[in-house]
Amino acid sequence: MSKIRIKALGEMITFAGRIAKKVAQPPKTILLYGDLGTGKTEFARAFIRAKLGDPNLVVPSPTFTIVQNYNGISHFDLYRIKSAAELYEIGFFDAIQNDIVLIEWSERGERFLPKSAIHINIELDGDERIITIS
User: Which CATH number goes with the domain that contains 126?
Assistant: First the structure.
């Protein structure tokens, strides 16, 4: 387990880019933990842009759509998910078997997640974010 302190958005972008380079091939699942406003979506946005090599790619939050897909990368927000049936409907199980997957609010689908998933917890500490990877 390692901890990293992030002081600015630029550092979050750099950090997410480094993680994106280390995640070589799908399937791979990255679980993003943290309260509202801690930077889960910013991390996912920077990761997707870095992985696809397009720093200007529009990467909206999946809060309302629940999932966004980008050429083999799936970005889920499970905040509003209430059942396994809903996970089937949004293609969750296919994605975790075939894609690089980033999941916000992964606690909602915890029992269905791969054991090999990367856990990234983001906490606020004043103006800084403390990121723990396990």
Answer: 3.40.50.300
